[in-house]
Amino acid sequence: MKKGLKVVCFIANNFEDLELWYPVLRLREAGVTVHLVGEKAGEKYIGKYGVPATSDYAFGDIAIEDYDALLVPGGWAPDKLRRFPEVIEMVRAIDRENKPIGQICHAGWVLISAKILNGKNVTSTPGIKDDMENAGAKWLDKPVVVDGNIVSSRRPQDLPGYMKAFLSLLEKRYPDS
């Protein structure tokens, strides 16, 4: 994959450490620019297991149209992230443009709040299966599910397949990058 692609990754306290860092590092290895975006720029956020991450930008500091894809890590952070109107609008904007969206574990909550899952095949942690189905999605107990522009996964053990699918979707969407 050539350099030039930009991915936004949302961040808030209590993100699932591996579900944030594994995708970010894999994308950076592939030459993709990844920006961590949270409520405040330059803020240190702490993962569920104590691994820190510092946001590059605040939600209001970026123009979502400048990004090629979106990642939402799991943990308890998605329950906080979905309360920000800016986050919901950014998810909807990325979805409207059919740009890749990656979500794992509890990250489905953000997509539910953005109301973009109706009629989609998805997976997540089994703990939010009912939430996903109540949002109109068909929930599948599989390590990775790709439906259109959405790549979903269940848990940290599924990360290798999740990132393989996400990178593949990026390459299909942006073959010349």
UniProtKB/TrEMBL annotation:
It comes from the Bacteria. Keywords: Glycosidase, Hydrolase, Protease. Its EC number is 3.2.-.-. The keyword Hydrolase applies. GO terms for biological process: proteolysis. It holds the Pfam family DJ-1_PfpI. GO terms for molecular function: hydrolase activity, acting on glycosyl bonds; peptidase activity. Residues 6-167 form the DJ-1/PfpI domain. Belongs to the peptidase C56 family. PANTHER family: DJ-1 PROTEIN, DJ-1_PFPI DOMAIN-CONTAINING PROTEIN. This is Putative cysteine protease YraA. The gene is yraA.
